[in-house]
Every structure is written in C-alpha cells, then in structure tokens.
C-alpha cells in the first residue's frame, strides 16, 4: 500500500486490515527515513556486522534525527493512522502510533489491577531520576497519562484505531501512556541479523515487521553456552544481548555496569522502590530539543543565566549538548515493583534489606553477579557495586536525611555477596554429598 494519497479512516472502502497495513507501512517508512539520516551522518562502515554495531551503539555516537511527521502531514495522520502492537508481556500489550513519541500499555483482562501500581512506581522513579538531573546515564520514559477503562470518552475516540488487536486483549481496559523508547536503528538491527540469525532465516527476519521494534535486554549476568548454535527462534523484539556478545561486539560492558549500579541506587534510595522485575534495555534516545525545559536539558541554573552575555545562542547549546545518541540505556517495566517504604519502612532495615536482596536475585540476569570466577565478571561486579554504593551514599547523605541510614547501600551490597557465598556453599555441599553417596 502506498502513502501517495491521504486515506481517511471513515472511508467506507477502507477495511480494518487495510488501515492496519497503512499504519505498518508508515512505520516502516519513518524507520527507513531515520536510518538514512543515521547512515549519512555516521559514515557507517560496511566491512563487518560487529564493526557496524560497535559504531552505531557506541556511547559517543550521535545523530540529528529528521522531524518524523514533517513529510507526512498531507496524509492527515490523525484520522488515518492507527495503533500497532510493538511489545507484549504477562500483564498487557504495548502499542505505538507511528510518528508519535508515546506508547500505550493496555492491560490484559486478568491484570487490570496491576497497571495502577505500575503507574505509581514508574512515577516515583521518573521523579527521582529527574531530581538527579540529566547527567544520570540511564533514562526512564516520561509519563504522559493514565486512562482507566471507565473513561468512555477516551475509549470511544481511540478504540477505532486499534485495528489489529491481539485476541487476549479486550477493550476498553486500563491504559498507561508513556514516552516511547525509540528502537535500535535499522543499520544496527540488520547487523545483528547478519551476525546472529541463522542464514536460512535471515530473509524472513529482515521482512518481519516485528523486528523493527528492537530493544536489546542488557544481560551482564549471562553468557551463551560455548559453541551453542545460532537460535532457531531468532527475533529482535526483546533481544537478549548477553555478556559474551557485548564483549564480542566491543560494546562498553563496564559503562553498562556503572549505569545499572547508579540507576538501581536511585530506584532503591531516592524513589524507595524495590526494583522487582525491572528491565534494562538498549534502545535509541528520543529527541530532546523542544521536549524539555532548558533548565533540565542543559542543567542551567538561575545563576548561570545571570552570568551569560546578552543574546547568548541557547539554540546552539541545545544542538551541541542535546543531539540524541543512537543508543542509550533505559529502565522500564515497573508493574511488579513495590514501594518498599509502604511495606518495610525506613525503621525496619532488618526486614527491608532481605527484601531488596531477594528482588535483586529474582530479576532477569541484567546485573553483574558477585563471586564469579572470570576476571571480566569480577571487574563488572566491582564497577557495579562501587557505583551503587557511591550513588546510594550520596543520596542518603543529603540534607534532611537520617545519618543512621547512610550505610544501607553498602549493607545491601554486602548482603548480596553473603547470599551468593551461601548459595555456592550449599551447591558445593550438595555436590559433595552426591559424590559421597
């Protein structure tokens, strides 16, 4: 289907499947336009997938993105383009509307009660990260709105645009609207397919529209088995980027570990969230100019403004500092998180710390782990834990905080090490008993 004319959703000849195809076509064209801009500015190497990925996903790689709707305004997108599913989980499905910077997480029927806690924990985390400033390496999606299923006005207006709804979803439902994490650029996705997808599956992987929705889970606590074959179920949606791949591709594992340690400390001690089942993913960075106040975008203070020369070129400062990266770490998915101060409370560290340790080890293998045998794993744990302690201690040393709490981050790390040592001891003892028998 071509976008050469302005299709309207009230066109009687346009079926839901045709409108869904139109939505998907626009998504693909916007993705191609973004990729063209990245390739042109970064002078992408062509010699091997690993060099391409390292070039595009480097923390120093930035590119000015095109205005996504500029070329498509004649098509009256507001009345034609619908929502397409870009992700799913146990509790709901996530939809985007191509050309917009937001996504909508819609709860499945059995999980409608889980979306409000998701909203509360996400809100507290976002506020805590905002307070720490833009120098924090990891990003948290902005929250735009929350729509309960009883909001008939919103659902009457938006339900017709859910052209292709998964059979497990019944509308209306509760919905959380947040900033969209832009997927990894097409050139990086293509390189991942060329390197890690079985050759006989690469054609289908390139043609599959779901692979445009690529966020890579950063698994610093897992390696693929040695000499394991390429996955016969290859997909780029929620791609598991394991530590051996991170090393193989020349990506900055130590920087990832530091970013995770900093982020977890903020979540624990500034947002007071247990971080249960959160995800750390590698995506792109959203455009920042004209989406934030300059006090946040540039970390400007009243004193700095007062010291500036009249007619200082603020726009050039924005263009230089706020050019989005082609890759950025994000933290998301707060639906299973608990606000721990509502349960354990500050006055019960003997209850709180075991709970935080349990949440740490129950997560997917994002974090480095203590007491690992290989040098790299030990270095990553040292980086993660020292960054976590430094950030957590700084947060709990702020004016107004109880000085008796300042050691909690270090006690948490020590407790993680103690638990892992106990696990290893139990494992060795079990093995000895089996051998003796």
Strand content is 5-15%
How would you sum up the major sheet?
Answer: 5 strands, antiparallel
Measured distance between first and last alpha carbons: 69 Å
| Mean pLDDT across every amino acid position | 86
Helix content: 40-55%
Number of helices: 14
Poorly predicted segments: 1-10, 68-78, 432-437
Major sheet strand order:
1-2-3-5-4
Describe the model.
This protein has a domain at 253-302 and 323-436. Helix 2 packs antiparallel against helix 5, helix 12 packs across helix 14 (408-436) and helix 13 (375-396) packs antiparallel against helix 14 (408-436). It has a 5-stranded antiparallel sheet. The protein has 437 residues and is an alpha+beta fold. Helix content is 42%, strand content 10%. It has helices at 16-42, 49-56, 115-132, 152-158, 186-196, 202-207, 243-248, 253-269, 294-297, 302-307, 314-321, 349-362, 375-396, 408-436; strands at residues 84-88, 92-96, 102-107, 143-147, 175-179, 216-219, 239-242, 279-283, 328-332. Strand 2 and strand 3 form a beta hairpin. The chain is globular, with a radius of gyration of 23 Å. It holds the Pfam family DUF3669. This is Zinc finger protein. Residues 329-398 form the DUF3669 domain.
